[in-house]
Structure prediction request, 118 residues.
Amino acid sequence: MSKKISKKSLEELKSRSNNNCEYCGEDLDKAGYHIEHVVPKSKWVDGHLSYGKNNILNLKLSCPECNREKYNRNLEEYRQFIMRSRAKKDLKLLFEEMIESHVKGNPYKFYFEKTIDC
Ligand SMILES: [Zn+2]
Prediction:
């Protein structure tokens, strides 16, 4: 995202966020900052924003990762995206645990193991 905003606006954003990513809280001294449009450019409609498009009310300081992830989502779409990604990750882990436990509880026997007296 473009960094072409006034120095004053940038200072305001940094002070508003304590120089942390406004989405995930990452320390931007380490991560580097992007200037992110809350209502993405692709969703700007004439008259939709009562304030200027580069007004800091429509800007967030973000880490590169959040900026990339949010992409052209608006705020609520991004929130849904994060919740769905987390749910997928959690359910994948749970599913893997269930498979492990099922495998341990149901050892497979080859045919010859079932027919040999030992
Ligand atoms: Zn972030």
In short: Residues 21, 23-24, 26, 62-63, 65-66 surround zinc ion (CB under 6 Å). The chain has two domains: 1-72, 73-118. The chain has a mean pLDDT of 89. Residues 85 and 91 are 10 Å apart (CA to CA).
